[in-house]
């Protein structure tokens, strides 16, 4: 490729555009110091000679590197979305949206407290579901529960002795590593020692609960987005407004999912701490 062809290719690039501007500046500067008029074309010819003689031309394209483009994409993906509550409240029930999201977080916290205690708590046992004659109850509906000492929980089944087999089964399959012992209408539950296996099992249970509530948050998100898109069909709002509102709801959902993820990380660290 000749020097002239290289020069023409250079002028078509972004770098070439910068050199064109430099040539114009050079011409103006020389015009201010000399009485002889120098045209922009002459300036460019002079610049061409300087470029070739000084080897300014680089074979590297003047484009952003792949890794740099990736960084830009990440920045766009992680951008902050301003929540225009006025617009959002016109397209969906904003108060219900906030309440639905927060309820998912509150219920997850409650489940963590009840089901992920290193020591089997009375509260966790009280809320265990039990099926009796096709109906579902909680253990606390069928038994009087007391903690005899830190190592033993006592359940008195005097009022519903027929439910004892179902309660024993629920306790055994609770995932709390319980080994209930029956004495007449009384059930004694030794509180199990905290083993490494028990910690790991609870950590897995924590993730299962997180997934459950993460999916609920997404269900809330999808439900409200559907309502917003229906408004687009009804008319009265621009495509941009609908898109903006959908982005707001998605951002709010992701904020609550991130909060749930933080709760999971904290709980797992607590459970696995030796």
From TrEMBL:
Gene3D superfamilies: 3.30.1360.40, Ribosome-recycling factor. One of its GO terms (biological process) is translation. GO terms for molecular function: ribosomal large subunit binding. SUPFAM superfamilies: Ribosome recycling factor, RRF. Residues 109-272 form the Ribosome recycling factor domain. The keyword Protein biosynthesis applies. It comes from the Eukaryota. Keywords: Protein biosynthesis. GO terms for cellular component: mitochondrion. Belongs to the RRF family. PANTHER family: MITOCHONDRIAL RIBOSOME RECYCLING FACTOR PSEUDO 1, RIBOSOME RECYCLING FACTOR. This is Ribosome-recycling factor, mitochondrial.
């Amino acid at each position: 490729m000749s020097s002239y062809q290289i020069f023409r290719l250079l002028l078509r690039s972004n770098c070439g555009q910068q050199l064109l501007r430099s040539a114009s500046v050079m011409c103006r500067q020389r015009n201010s110091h000399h009485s002889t008029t120098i045209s922009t074309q002459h300036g460019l010819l002079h610049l061409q000679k300087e470029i070739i003689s000084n080897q300014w031309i680089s074979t590297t394209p003047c484009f952003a590197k792949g890794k740099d483009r990736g960084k830009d994409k990440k920045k766009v993906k992680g951008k902050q979305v301003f929540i225009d509550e006025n617009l959002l409240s016109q397209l969906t029930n904003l108060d219900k949206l906030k309440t639905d999201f927060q309820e998912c977080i509150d219920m997850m916290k409650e489940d963590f407290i009840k089901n992920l205690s290193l020591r089997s708590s009375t509260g966790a046992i009280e809320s265990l579901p039990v099926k009796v004659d096709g109906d579902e109850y909680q253990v606390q509906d069928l038994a009087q529960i007391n903690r005899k000492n830190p190592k033993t929980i006592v359940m008195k089944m005097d009022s519903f002795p027929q439910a004892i087999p179902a309660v024993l089964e629920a306790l055994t399959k609770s995932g709390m590593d319980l080994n209930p012992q029956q004495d007449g209408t009384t059930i004694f539950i030794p509180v199990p020692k905290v083993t490494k296996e028990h910690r790991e099992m609870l950590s897995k249970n924590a993730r299962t609960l997180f997934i459950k509530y993460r999916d609920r948050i997404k269900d809330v998100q999808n439900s409200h987005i559907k309502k917003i898109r229906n408004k687009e069909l009804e008319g009265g709002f621009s495509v941009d407004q609908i898109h903006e509102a959908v982005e707001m709801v998605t951002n709010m959902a992701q904020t609550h999912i991130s909060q749930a993820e933080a709760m999971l990380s904290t709980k797992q660290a607590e459970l696995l701490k030796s």
